[in-house]
């Protein structure tokens, strides 16, 4: 396996910029997930690493070797596509062994590699079938097996689970994670699904508008998002946001909400007095008070999910959500009172960057 170093990578189509200078160090054996909304540049970056898109500016190194000018076949990487890209006239065994046969690999080596990959992926009973006789999940396992037999320096996954239903996606996520733990392969995985990103990644690269917004472990992005985009994109249900102002006074410091509520904070922030801020809090951290304290919010919708309950509220005229395991929430009246524990607050400045 190998490390992958990306230095100031830019991509333009004509005069339209798509990537605005991406820097990323991927360690040998690391599982990196590129996540973001459609059009953020994550798939373009993956295709540039694979050699399927030309680099406009910058440098890509795989195992310390510059690969900008190398053809895809000379980069020693394997790619798993959303569309599976299997040969319909070939059996599972022939699909998995095709790349090795092209390289005129000895038969014994091919048989051993295919058998090992098939065993890891549970494909042994399916080796003589053709793709049309397989389910979507089985086809994706074959596509993964075809990549594994090559023993490449890195695996690239381009939204491989998008065509599967919810239950199969859950199953395949677990299989991919187990496979990575077994192979310890350098892997880059592209998805727009933040649940996939959170469950699979060693580190997440959150992208938006062709710019890397934050790089970190899943819990780093969840607990301390760098800006409003990351805070809103990571987490389900998404983080709540409220307009507020930073206030200092002899009696203390805090965040003043639109309705006049002052939320006290322990430490001063690097902000001017009366600076506009955005206050964020995750739905699972909101507390419903029963003693009449807190802010009053109108209940607009209640969604039982089985595991928990989502309350859709209107607070200060803005959409607001609570996630709770308390089933008494199903009996919530037309309004509830809510409070925000200070330890769970996120504060963002006027530019949308994290302050606290």
Q: Write down the overall mean pLDDT.
A: 93
Number of helical regions: 8
Q: Roughly what fraction of the amino acids lie in strands?
A: 25-35%
CATH topology of the largest domain, anyone? Rossmann fold
Instruction: Give start-end ranges of low-pLDDT stretches.
Output: none
Q: Order of strands across the widest beta sheet?
A: 6-7-8-3-9-10
By CATH, the architecture of the largest domain is named 3-Layer(aba) Sandwich
Shape: elongated
Which structural category do the helix and sheet elements fall into? alpha+beta
Q: How many structural units, i.e. domains? A: 2
* Number of beta strands: 20
Q: Tell me the distance between the termini.
A: 39 Å
Proportion of helical residues? 10-25%
Task: List strands and helices in order, with pairings.
Blueprint: E1 4-13, E2 16-26, E3 31-35, H1 42-50, E4 57-62, E5 65-66, E6 77-80, H2 92-102, H3 107-121, H4 136-148, E7 154-158, H5 166-183, E8 187-191, H6 194-200, E9 203-208, E10 211-216, H7 218-223, H8 228-233, E11 240-249, E12 252-257, E13 262-264, E14 276-281, E15 287-289, E16 295-304, E17 309-315, E18 318-324, E19 335-339, E20 346-348
Q: How does this structure look, described?
A:
The chain is an alpha+beta fold and 356 residues long. The protein folds into 2 domains: 4-233, P-loop containing nucleotide triphosphate hydrolases (Rossmann fold, 3-Layer(aba) Sandwich); 240-348, Nucleic acid-binding proteins (OB fold (Dihydrolipoamide Acetyltransferase, E2P)). The chain is 24% helix and 34% strand. It contains 8 helices and 20 strands. A 6-stranded mixed β-sheet has the order 6-7-8-3-9-10, sandwiched between helices. Strands 13-12-11-14-20 form a 5-stranded antiparallel β-sheet. It is elongated.
């Amino acid at each position: 396996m190998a490390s992958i170093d990306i230095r100031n990578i830019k991509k333009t189509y004509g005069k339209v910029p798509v990537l605005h200078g991406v820097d990323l160090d991927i360690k040998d054996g690391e599982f990196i997930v590129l996540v973001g909304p459609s059009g953020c540049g994550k798939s373009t970056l993956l295709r540039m690493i694979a050699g399927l898109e030309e680099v406009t500016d910058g440098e890509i190194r795989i195992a310390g070797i510059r690969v900008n000018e190398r053809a895809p076949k000379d980069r020693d990487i394997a790619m798993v596509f959303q569309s599976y890209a299997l040969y319909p006239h070939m059996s599972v065994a022939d699909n998995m062994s095709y790349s090795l046969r092209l390289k005129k690999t000895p038969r014994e080596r091919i048989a051993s590699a295919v058998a090992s990959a098939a065993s890891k992926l549970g494909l042994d009973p399916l080796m003589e079938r053709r793709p049309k006789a397989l389910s979507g999940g089985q086809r994706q396992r074959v596509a993964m097996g075809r990549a594994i037999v090559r023993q490449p320096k890195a695996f690239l996954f381009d939204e491989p689970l998008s065509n599967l239903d919810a239950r199969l996606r859950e199953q395949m996520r677990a299989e991919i994670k187990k496979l990575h733990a077994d192979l310890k392969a350098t892997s880059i995985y592209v998805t727009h699904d933040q649940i996939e990103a959170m469950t699979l990644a060693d580190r997440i690269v959150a992208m938006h508008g062709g710019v890397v917004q934050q790089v970190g472990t899943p819990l780093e992005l969840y607990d301390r998002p760098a800006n409003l985009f990351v805070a809103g994109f990571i987490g389900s249900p998404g983080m709540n946001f409220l307009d507020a102002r930073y206030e200092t006074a002899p009696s203390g410091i805090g965040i003043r909400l639109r309705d006049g509520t002052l939320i006290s904070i322990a430490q001063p922030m690097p902000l001017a007095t009366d600076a506009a801020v955005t206050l964020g809090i995750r739905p699972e951290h909101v507390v419903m008070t029963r003693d009449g304290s807190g802010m009053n919010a109108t209940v607009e919708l209640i969604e039982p999910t089985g595991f928990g309950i989502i309350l859709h509220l209107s607070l200060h005229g803005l959409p607001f959500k609570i996630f709770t395991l308390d089933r008494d929430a199903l009996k919530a009246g037309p309004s509830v009172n809510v409070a925000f524990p200070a330890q769970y607050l996120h504060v963002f400045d006027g530019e949308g960057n994290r302050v606290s």
